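Can you make up a polypeptide sequence alongside its tokenized fold?
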Amino acid sequence: MSTIIDRFEKIKFKIDSLKPDKLVNIIAVSKTFDFDYIKPLIDYGHLHFGENKVQEASAKWTEFKKNNSYLKLHMIGKLQSNKAKDAVKLFDYIHSLDNQKLADALAKYQINLNKKLEYFIQVNIGNEIQKSGIPIHQLDEFYNYCVNEINLKIIGLMIIPPVDQNAEKYFKLLNELNKSLSLENMSMGMSADYVEAIKNGSTFIRIGSSIFGSRS
């Protein structure tokens, strides 16, 4: 068994031992790794992969996705509205919906390309100037706009908690916000903190280095 598969199975075992209430989806974050390197995990039957940049993802996945539509691609990085068309073409999930201009562009291209994606609203949970995301006080209004005005399928909220702080308190807060909107899913937790994220209700965890090793 390859190292990648071995690491992946260890994470699955860890998740099972937590006995979560809901299914937890592992997004294998394959950014910066080439296709041949991640292929063993595809061949093993894993379905969810995450990328940070549209251009890199297009070069890596476009051909494979043409004949393997069962594979689910997640855009987890910052998405500019001028890349919305390419993102709608390629991805199945967008985790970084964070402003109205982007929402409008995605809604437009969904109609043009006759494709329906699933979205997470990124929340700026720590109110950090350098981070993307909807401020908490604007969340209800933005959610209602996305769902009722432009018909986006919002399935949950997403955060990247502040570094070097107690991630758990932010996970708890996001869980409360998620429940207030009656949403079923949450995208939170990475290699270092996915256990705490799952304990607080996360259903999509974004795991890179713990599966694929450190990036060069």
